[in-house]
Amino acid sequence: MTLSQMQKVPQPGDQAPEFTARSTSGENVTLSSFRGKRNVLLAFFPLAFTSTCTEELCDFSRAQFDFGEADVEIVPISVDSVDSLRAFKKLESLSMDLVSDFRRDISRDYGVLNEEKFYSRRAYFLVDREGIVRWSHVEAHGGLKRDNAEILSEIAKLR
Question: What is the pTM of this model?
């Protein structure tokens, strides 16, 4: 990651960049629609149907109750098409909707697009009810991921 890309990654205390994108539900997801209602975990993942991404999203799906109890909506985002994400969601029986960043605008706005490979880096942004980033983490490479326990620990700091 170059210095210019690092500078674009929202840090704790920054306003989270707004976006609207299509999801596997067929509806658009807009970040500001959660404002005043719920905290949001934006979870960028490189590509559907890959091993680490599958493991990560299945872990999220199994722990969705824990995230719900912590009043956090998980919003997984990848550059895959909506149709591809729907197939992935069905194959893995995922409980949450997935968001398509097919045009790569969201990944660019969050500074996590790998321009060489044209997909996003694995990254996490915990956004509070006011739309402020409270925690962020960008993995060094796509084979790494945060455990739910670590993410839930960061969420607990919001209270």
Answer: 0.94
